[in-house]
Every structure is written in structure tokens, then in C-alpha cells.
Amino acid sequence: MVGYTSEELQSLGPLDITHEDDRETAQEMLEHVQSGKPEDYHSEKRYRCRDGRVIWVRVSTARALDPDTPLPGTPAIIEDITERKRAEGDLHNAREALSRATRLAMMGELAASIAHEVNQPLGAIIMNGNACRRFLALTPPDLDEIRDGLDAVVSDGNRASEVLSRIRAMLKD
Fold first, then answer.
1. CA proximity to 19, closest of 42, 60, 47, 40
2. Nearest residue to 122 via CA among 153, 150, 168
3. Which residues are within 8 A (CB) of 98 and not within 5 positions of it... i.e. 6 or more apart?
4. Which residues contact 153 (CB under 8 A, 6 or more apart)?
5. Residue ranges, the chain, pLDDT below 70
6. How far apart are CA 134 and CA 123, in angstroms?
7. Residue 148: count of CB within 10 angstroms of its CB
8. For residues 63 and 39, is the Cβ–Cβ distance under 8 A?
9. Which tens digits make up the pLDDT trace of 105-130?
10. DSSP state of 53
């Protein structure tokens, strides 16, 4: 699994092939196993292979019920879980990409909604402003219609301002 011969492995301790970043945790596992407590122990960590590759392994230790067992050391099963870890990483990346895409889609929908909400009063302002121009061009100008048109411009300007205030308040929360 790690590319060492059995002779080389016999001269190496478990920490020697453990990835540098996992050695402290591996040391704690060894101390736990050597403490003599009767429970099993499972851990995931990385090994550095002879050729420099890094693989993920799951280490499961078992305690012999008979302390006078003829086997030296602690029985352990070491399983290569590199592919599982890679798949978990790929799944995590896919979830992150989906989350980003969802946020972007929501932002697009929000932008469209904001544009609609703001464009409504702006369109009315433009329409009323143009009407006021036409009323001013009359001889004599229709001052009552101009006053009504300007009141509508102010009202629609306030409506646009309220939409923007609600959006700002929503973003602050």
C-alpha cells in the first residue's frame, strides 16, 4: 500500500510513514492504544508513501482480550480510503458550486425584482414630466394639470425612494 518492503516497514515506526500534519493525532492514537484500555480505536489519517505520494487510510485497532496473546504489538487493520476521500472532496466542491449557482440565480431574480419595483415609479415620473411639458406648451398653459402632474412626479419619486429604503433595510438585516 505504501510502497515499502516488509523489511523497511519493520524498521519504521507508525509515525515515520504518517503525514507530518497528522503525526500529533497519530501519537495520541498510539498512546490511547498502548494505555491498555479494552476498547477498539478507529482513526483516519494520511500516510506518506515511499514514492512521495500521500494516501488516506482508516486505521482500526483491536485489543486482544487475553493479555498473554502470542502476537506482539497491537492488531490493526489499515484500509486505503484515498478514493473515498477524493469522492468526498469532489462532492463538497460540487455542493459549493451548486450553492454559488443558487446564490447567483437568487441575486439575478432579486435584481430583476428591484429593477421592476424601481422602474415602475421612474416610468410614471417620466410620463408625468412629459405631460407637464405638453401642458406648458399650451396657450395659455394649463396650470391645474401641470400642478397635478408635478404632484404625481413628487409622489412617484417618493415611491421610488421608499422602494430603495426597503431594499437597504433588508440588506442591513
1. 47
2. 153
3. none
4. 125, 128, 129, 132
5. 36-39, 63-74, 173
6. 17
7. 15
8. yes
9. 998 998 898 888 899 999 999 999 99
10. -
